[in-house]
Amino acid sequence: MYRTVKATSGRQIFQPLHTLRSAEKELLPGFHQFEWQPALKNVSSSWDVGIIDGLSGWTASVDDVPADTIARRFRYDVALVSALKDLEEDIMEGLRERGLDDSTCTSGFTVVVKESCDGMGDVSEKHGSGPAVPEKAVRFSFTIMSISVRADDEEDAVTIFQEQKPNSELSCRPLCLMFVDESDHETLTAILGPVVAERKAMLESRLILSVGGLLRSFRLFFRGTGFDEKMVREMEGLEASGSMYVCTLCDSTRAEASQNMVLHSITRCHTENLERYEIWRKNPFSESADELRDRVKGVSAKPFMETQPTLDALHCDIGNATE
């Protein structure tokens, strides 16, 4: 009845099964108490939330077809709290190393979170009679990149934690798993829409969480940089990668990009893509399909997730070619 745990030191520690079970519970989101000030808009204040249905929180409109898929996720704030509690020792160690008195550092903490989302490829059952679901899966996850604190009498923030391996699977925490093809824009919107709403609510509030025995206040910032080009196109409502509009960040066509390797700049933003979608939908100037497509430059669906305009893969390639 005994199981063995490998500690971080690599030593084998034998533990009775019930001890492992309780240790496991502490690691899963939904174990730690926390509070938001002000309370999150449209999000329940209960903290003991475990795994929820990925489609909960989506309010279907009249013409929506119910999404025929299976999705499971943690609530975003609950998962972030679990991740921060995981880093409790690192946070306290960082304060000590910087010579900061932890009893005075109760507010002014800033947490930068990197979001990632990608398809996991074909996950179909080769045999067996499970439920009929799409044969592709998508995972949305996040990594805590850095934590900094600004002491009351200081002007500059001091970084007390920096993730050394930001692309490691050990630091990348899954938030939502769904059976869906990553090019199924409608189903992705239905599942990730509530996640985006929760993230937006967290930006306007402060997290109050006990770290090192004292209640501390955290502000969260999100950077959506772990998306590849295909995913960015899908979430920003752009035509797929075979489009003549070659880029997710500017209006270059393939012909223009091949002629001009230098003068590329980031011109797209989320709100502009939304405006273009409305033009695409309403066609206010009664233009032909080609004229309309030329006007919206590759926007084909309603974008639902704002991705940070950092340099994308294509601009990096163009830059390398120029070098």
Automatic annotation (TrEMBL):
Residues 245-307 form the V(D)J recombination-activating protein 1 ZnC2 domain. Residues 35-107 form the V(D)J recombination-activating protein 1 pre-RNase H domain. Residues 1-34 form the V(D)J recombination-activating protein 1 DNA-binding domain. InterPro entries: RAG1 (IPR024627), RAG1_DNA-bd (IPR058552), RAG1_pre-RNase_H (IPR058553), RAG1_RNase_H (IPR058554), RAG1_ZnC2 (IPR058555). One of its GO terms (molecular function) is protein homodimerization activity. Residues 111-243 form the V(D)J recombination-activating protein 1 RNase H domain. GO terms for cellular component: DNA recombinase complex; endodeoxyribonuclease complex; nucleus. It comes from Sinibotia robusta. GO terms for biological process: adaptive immune response; B cell differentiation; chromatin organization; T cell differentiation in thymus; V(D)J recombination. This is Recombination activating protein 1.
